[in-house]
């Protein structure tokens, strides 16, 4: 009996500790603009955050006009994207629905860029898992 | 005694299951721009999401310059708004404070459009209830 | 033994009550634009919210091009910022990293404006603490 009680206390405490502990640096960036300042900003932020926080998990979700960031011949930060995409804690995820709507093929994406079935659902799922949310604009 | 213990275990598990289960497709869209691309984008997204996810709950909250989306004579997607507003899982909610500030009367809003006392509080309340949040810009 | 059981019930109930109670009016505003309409909007919203909700906690986090709001000689709402910054429930927090990147010194900030080590981490920390999140654009 005592064993179960201890188990309950541990379970309760673990919930409270999970809530109280310092927040992990997990961020989903929402990019829907082709604006060059926004492209450069999100790359600068990701470079800085991953440099200063080795465990930070960062994902850029692109839909609407945001696809340019990772499209060959359109991205103004192609080298940075290609390099950052090799970092296992950084991902660039393009919305499949937006790709179809805009007739963009996977072969047009920079190396290492991934796709997700639905960009908006990807973002709200991350939010639901406790990731921070940043809309990229300027 | 044993009964209470079982009750506690069930209660604890139910909390964990609630956290772990797949996220419902509930989204509050924050619209503060009169930009035509943003108007068209949010309507396209809502059409697609509600078509692909019958249970998705979607709400567009408008304040600042976002009121044009649902204002007669200003909306460039008036037919879509009127049609979507009939869907019980889709709502277009205009901030009362913004309406007063901009001298917009309820009679100027498209059919089916609703109002909320405070647009920002509406948004953060939805966020607090676990809805996803998407800022509409481009 | 009974004492512990009561304790568990209270703990469980307190978690559920915390989730169910009405959401406090806590908002972190994310400002990355120097746009004048956005500067005026966020100030108007803060004035209204703090007037209508005495307990509302409001914070504007500035990085990217958002620093103009609180920079001497650049802000178009300098008087409002200076006045609002005296309210203990309102804060204007500039990202240290952005200040260094843009060669902005603390002496250039309006009176009462504070700084945070990392603007994005400040925002996602507030989100993690249950604050609402509003991206300021138009």
Average pLDDT of chain A works out at 92
Query: Quick one: which chains have the greatest interface?
Result: A-B, 24 and 25 residues
Helix-strand makeup class of chain A: alpha/beta
Assembly annotation:
homotrimer
Element-by-element helix/strand order of chain A = HEHEHEHEHE
- What is the general shape of chain A? elongated
Topology:
The structure is a homotrimer of 138-residue chains.
Chain A: H1 2-20, E1 26-31, H2 36-52, E2 57-62, H3 78-84, E3 90-95, H4 96-101, E4 114-116, H5 119-128, E5 132-135
Parallel strand pairs in A: 1-2, 1-5, 2-3, 3-4
Could you explain how this protein is built, in words?
Chain A has 138 residues and is α/β, with parallel strands linked by helices. Chain A has a single domain, classed as 3-Layer(aba) Sandwich (Hypothetical Protein Ychn, Chain: A). Helix content of chain A is 43%, strand content 18%. Chain A contains five helices and five strands. Chain A has helices at residues 2-20, 36-52, 78-84, 96-101, 119-128; strands at residues 26-31, 57-62, 90-95, 114-116, 132-135. Chain A has a five-stranded parallel β-sheet, with helices on both faces. The radius of gyration of chain A is 18 Å and the shape is elongated. In chain A, 46% of the residues are buried. The mean pLDDT of chain A is 92. At the A-B interface, helix 1 and helix 5 of A face helix 1, helix 2 and strand 5 of B.
């Amino acid at each position: 009996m005592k064993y179960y009680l201890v188990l309950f206390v541990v379970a309760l405490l673990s919930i409270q500790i999970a809530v109280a502990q310092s927040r992990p640096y997990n961020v989903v960036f929402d990019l829907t603009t082709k604006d060059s300042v926004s492209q450069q900003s999100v790359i600068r932020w990701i470079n800085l955050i991953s440099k200063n926080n080795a465990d930070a998990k960062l994902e850029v979700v692109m839909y609407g006009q945001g696809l340019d960031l990772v499209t060959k011949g359109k991205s103004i930060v192609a080298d940075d994207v290609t390099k950052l995409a090799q970092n296992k804690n950084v991902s660039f995820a393009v919305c499949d629905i937006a790709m179809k709507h805009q007739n963009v093929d996977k072969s047009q994406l920079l190396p290492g860029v991934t796709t997700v079935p639905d960009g908006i659902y990807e973002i709200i799922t991350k939010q639901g898992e406790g990731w921070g949310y940043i809309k990229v604009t300027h």
